[in-house]
Amino acid sequence: MSSPNRAELLQMFRTTATEIVEKEFASIEENTKITELGIDSLGMLEIIGSLERQLKIQIPDESLAGLTTVRDLIEAVEKRFKVQS
Amino acid sequence: MYVDPTLVPPTLADALRERAKRAHRGFTFVRSDASERYMSYPDILKEAERRGAALYARGAKKGDRVALVIPDGDEFVLTFLGAAISGLVPVPIYPQLSFKNVEGYHDTVSHIVSAAGAQLLVTTETTAPYVEPVKARASVLREIVVASSFADQPHERVDVKVEPGDLGFLQFTSGSTSKPKGVAVTHGNLAWNSQCFIQQGLGRDDTDVGVSWLPLFHDMGLIGFLIGPVFTDIQVVFIPTANFVRAPRVWLEALSRHRGTITYAPNFAYALVTKRVKDRDVAELDLSCVRHAGCGAEPIQARTLREFADRLAPTGFRPEAFLPSYGMAEATLAISFGDRRGMGEKARGLRTDVVVQKSLEAGEAKAAAPGSEGSQELVNCGRAFPHHEMRVVKPGSFEPLPDRQIGEILFRGPSMCNGYFQDPEKTAESFKDGWLHTGDLGYLVDGEVFICGRSKDLIIIRGRNFYPGDIEWAVSELPRIRRGNVVAFGLSVNDEEQLVICAEAFQSDAAGLIEEITQLVNEQFALNVHHIELVPQGALPRTSSGKPQRRKAKDMFVQGAFAKMRNKGTTEAAT
């Protein structure tokens, strides 16, 4: 799979979050803080697991600690693409 | 009273040395990248001894507490065992979860380290930055040790005799308060409880394989799948908790591939699997090997288990494998199992009692016809293990109640711990006259126990008793509410107890939802809701295992913390 661009990754995050938390979000942008989305850590891990499956990548636990914004997560995903492709 | 030496060794130290005689057996650790590391019992013993010696080399001596903040299964297990077999007292602490309140985490860890009087804290390179600030807050803490530094230690064995009466470890219970209490668990307690739940409860044999993704800093994962198996020689496959949450399939896959016979999970995990598992997975898996699928650590819903069994029926999963269990850290781990001792493969799985819901309000569990209107189904958690005793009494007394009368559950026997570490006050509240006052409400039928809820959480409105769990479960069923994100509690308003419900939801749903919740509670419980607070998702306080904390939520509500969050939002007020 070729690396999706950031806009595509953001859209993918929106769709996945909506599917897992079972709710439309008002807005999710790159600078949205994860805590503002109010998804608990369990839900967040579910979302990350789903992204990993869709993109066929693995994000190591170390790069999950300290994620604050949606941008941080998108960048963690992009980094994996560089490593694994 | 001593354990049966033909069933279990007297201490964890004796047990691990005994295991090391069987070189062809051991533990498998799945890593977060799904690779596996197998370690034989002799290799585990050798590495554990080395780590014990390394801790002594850093100044620890017999009886000293050592805090462990270690996310990796193998590193945790080797360090925990190393400390325990060397006469040290490990204190497992949950590692920092991402996206969480860092300040609160430092508070909790500092509290535990200080209460335990731990001078050493062992962690890993990746986790070290998250515990570093604890050093400044817990003055007792002398050194933070990174586990990889143990590699420099030559192998040697500390010459220390470990006795059954010695402390095995401190189990800090996340409980429902912000300040966890450290249950003092002895080697003798561990030996006894292992004998009870694995030998007598699970009917262990040599072909058993345990599979667990449960966190190792909690009693169900730590005693259920590490300590118990070391005492009784069960080979175990450990999966990182985060791997399971990311992809629940990994649990089932490990069971299928390793031919797992024993596994355990809280109710929510069975629900998560049912929801997420794909038809393709179901077709590929073979779960006919599972003998015991235990369920504990939170209220058990019969429906959740039935849905799981239906969904996984094509894998050969047998509903008879379900093993509802009751226990708590103060009793080491297990108090009772849905009865199956001596029944071998004729195990009966999930058994329930259907009662008149309204009768519960008056403290009685009147039998009702299954499926009848206004009935409620409760799960049978069986009877106490041999040499142990369970009693249901009128709260605040020792007076046993007749069958089907709801009261506080008391427990005693050699699995009962002596109390909380260096905390006589808290100990006196729960351990009285040789009995553990569990704080759980329930009833007995022919010696088998049914759990209704925590007595401290009981909501009494105009003389009717309501269990918050029942109300929370009902509200969770609403489509716009996520399961497990609801808290119900009683609040005294003008000297009268009233019902308050806090639920995580989106403010845009507020108007309709409040009406729906009010109506639902009215219909199902004939009860008026005094106030409904819709809070942002993730706002409810939770324990380290993710359960909403009712008492803390109540404090936050009373202090107006939720109202503040709501006013910060852009949408209209909730009520």
List the helices and strands and how they pair.
The complex is a heterodimer of chains A (85) and B (575).
Chain A: H1 6-21, H2 34-37, H3 41-55, H4 70-84
Chain B: H1 12-19, E1 26-30, E2 36-40, H2 41-57, E3 65-69, H3 73-85, E4 89-92, H4 102-116, E5 120-123, H5 128-131, H6 134-137, E6 143-146, E7 167-173, E8 181-186, H7 187-201, E9 209-212, H8 219-232, E10 235-238, H9 241-246, H10 249-257, E11 262-265, H11 267-276, H12 279-284, E12 292-295, H13 302-312, E13 322-327, E14 334-337, E15 352-356, H14 357-361, E16 375-379, E17 383-384, E18 389-393, E19 407-412, H15 424-430, E20 431-432, E21 435-445, E22 448-454, E23 459-461, E24 464-466, H16 468-476, E25 486-493, E26 496-504, H17 510-525, E27 529-535, H18 550-558, H19 561-568
Parallel strand pairs in B: 1-10, 3-4, 3-5, 5-6, 9-10, 9-11, 11-12, 12-13, 26-27
Antiparallel strand pairs in B: 1-2, 7-8, 13-14, 14-17, 15-16, 18-19, 19-21, 20-21, 21-22, 23-24, 25-26
Summarize the structure.
The complex is a heterodimer of chains A (85) and B (575). Chain A has 85 residues and is mainly α.
Question: What can you tell me about this protein's structure?
Answer:
The complex is a heterodimer of chains A (85) and B (575). By secondary structure, chain A is an all-alpha fold. Chain A has a single domain, classed as Non-ribosomal Peptide Synthetase Peptidyl Carrier Protein, Chain A. Chain A contains 4 helices and no strands. Chain B has 3 domains: 186 residues, Rossmann fold (3-Layer(aba) Sandwich); 209 residues, ANL, N-terminal domain (Rossmann fold, 3-Layer(aba) Sandwich); 111 residues, ANL, C-terminal domain (GMP Synthetase, Chain A, domain 3, 2-Layer Sandwich). In chain B, strand 9, helix 8 and strand 10 form a beta-alpha-beta unit. Classes of the chains: A mainly alpha (85), B alpha/beta (575).
